[in-house]
Design goal:
- By secondary structure, this protein is of the alpha/beta class.
- The protein folds into two domains: 2-187 and 222-247, NAD(P)-binding Rossmann-like Domain (Rossmann fold), CATH 3.40.50.720; 196-219 and 253-292 and 313-339, UDP-galactose 4-epimerase, domain 1 (Alpha-Beta Complex).
- Helix content is 43%, strand content 17%.
- The strands form three sheets. Strands 3-2-1-4-5-6-10 form a seven-stranded parallel sheet, sandwiched between helices. Strands 7-9-11 form a three-stranded mixed sheet.
- α5 (155-174) links the parallel β5 (125-131) and β6.
- The protein is globular, with a radius of gyration of 20 Å.
- The N and C termini lie far apart (52 Å).
- 42% of the residues are buried.
- Bound molecules: nicotinamide-adenine-dinucleotide and 2'deoxy-thymidine-5'-diphospho-alpha-D-glucose.
- The site of nicotinamide-adenine-dinucleotide has 30 residues, from α1, α4, β5 and β7.
- Residues 86-88, 131-133, 184-185, 195-196, 199, 211-213, 218, 220, 255, 287, 294 line the site of 2'deoxy-thymidine-5'-diphospho-alpha-D-glucose (DAU).
């Protein structure tokens, strides 16, 4: 039995990763460490909460003493680190939350991992989950590869870039075994409705305006969250020590094109007249320092480890919309609380 710590497992991507590992690896004991911030939600993982190879631990990666005691108690063979402050807009208003959790929190985990293994790391691994935003913004052409220079533009991106550097530095200096993956925009079930797709699905459903930042021509590369979880599984088991893998959907969309597709699919699923949802589109003030375009070259992951996305964007988006329509209670539980304050500050 291996003891594996997954951080941030009550969040969006983390919940899909925890589910996959708990269900597929009965010989691993999965410890899910999450502070349950506004973005953490145990409702995301109720289906596996009673599994015999699963333990939830509420705790904060910023708390050094707590983290050290947890590692000492469970002697984790591996860490898959997803816990983070993850929303760019929040990093513009509260950058220190990002510096503390994403940079210092990551350092606390690395130090605790070193302390239990005393730099003897046979069969051990620290897997750091990161983002394509560390590479900055692209012009009209080109793709981010694993050797693209870092050029983070938002406080969120800079905090993630710093955490990537710290992980690599511990590998280089102390021989701590690590892999890093940098992924593009995820979408799917259980995403907190501050991010574009779930926010817009909920607004269409409740006939609220769809706030498009700037000219709407910003481009992102979208990946279905379950495909990200599959990639993490593959990299965790087959990735090479000290390597970086880019993960992406080979799937670029301008925000406006994506929003129109979302509107079309929702009109159909809600039985509305074609064009009803699109009437809600409203242009609003742009995000400060808004990155124009992200696009990932995931060829290395595809060639070396045989990973490819399992669904087209149209299929993934349709599944995603269905999930939100079928899980009204999940959305209502989130949007009835402090979310209201956030929404008012951001959009009204
Ligand atoms: P999320 O905001 O949905 O979830 C983050 C989780 O981390 C929450 O459950 C939260 O409670 C927990 N958390 C936050 N601060 C914590 C702390 N101090 N201690 C313990 N737990 C804490 O984020 P997500 O979208 O699921 O992203 C997960 C990871 O993947 C992040 O590291 C993010 O940078 C990275 N990533 C996200 C995307 C994306 O499109 N969402 C793409 C690439 C990479
Ligand atoms: O690229 C990976 C990153 O993708 C992850 O590291 C981040 O954790 C994740 O949040 C995401 O960042 P983005 O800023 O790209 O995602 P977001 O959903 O916030 O915005 C997507 C695009 O939509 C972006 O160009 C901003 C725009 N947007 C977003 C919101 C919330 C709008 O036009 N209106 C909105 O209300």
């Amino acid at each position: 039995m291996k003891n594996i710590l997954i951080t941030g497992g009550a969040g969006f991507i983390g919940s899909h990763v925890v589910r996959l590992f708990v269900n597929n690896y009965p010989n691993y004991h999965i410890y899910n460490l999450d502070a349950l911030t506004y973005a953490g939600n145990l409702e995301n993982i109720t289906d596996i909460s009673e599994a015999s190879n699963y333990t939830f631990v509420k705790g904060n990666i910023k708390d050094i003493d707590f983290i050290n005691a947890l590692f000492k108690k469970h002697q984790f063979d591996a860490v898959i680190h997803l816990a983070a402050e993850s929303h760019v807009d929040r990093s513009i208003t509260n950058p220190n939350d990002f510096i503390e959790t994403n940079m210092l929190g990551t350092a606390n985990l690395l130090n605790a991992f070193r302390a239990i293994w005393q730099d003897n790391y046979e069969d051990k691994l620290f897997y750091h989950v990161s983002t394509d935003e560390v590479y900055g913004s692209l012009g009209k052409t080109g793709l981010f590869t694993e050797t693209t220079s870092y050029d983070p533009q938002s406080p969120y991106a800079a905090s993630k870039a710093s955490s990537d550097h710290i992980v690599r530095a511990y590998g280089n200096t102390y021989g701590l075994p690590f892999v890093i993956s940098n992924c593009s925009n995820n979408y799917g079930a259980n995403q907190f409705p501050e991010k574009l797709i779930p926010l817009f699905i909920n607004n269409i459903k409740t006939s609220k305006s769809l706030p498009v930042y700037g000219d709407g021509q910003y481009t992102r590369d979208w990946l279905f969250v379950e495909d990200h979880a599959t990639a993490i599984d593959l990299i965790f088991h087959k990735g090479k020590n000290e390597e970086t893998y880019n993960i992406g959907g080979f799937n670029e969309w301008t925000n406006l094109d994506l929003i129109h597709l979302l509107c079309e699919q929702l009109d159909e699923k809600l039985g509305q007249e074609k064009g009803t949802a699109a009437k809600l589109i409203t242009y609003v003030k742009d995000r400060a320092g808004h990155d124009r375009r992200y696009a990932i070259d995931a060829t290395k992951l595809s060639n070396e480890l045989g990973w490819n996305p399992s669904v087209t964007f149209e299929q993934g988006l349709s599944k995603t919309i269905d999930w939100y329509l079928e899980n009204e209670a999940w959305m209502n539980n989130i949007t009835s609380g402090s979310y209201k304050e956030y929404y008012k500050k951001m959009y009204e």
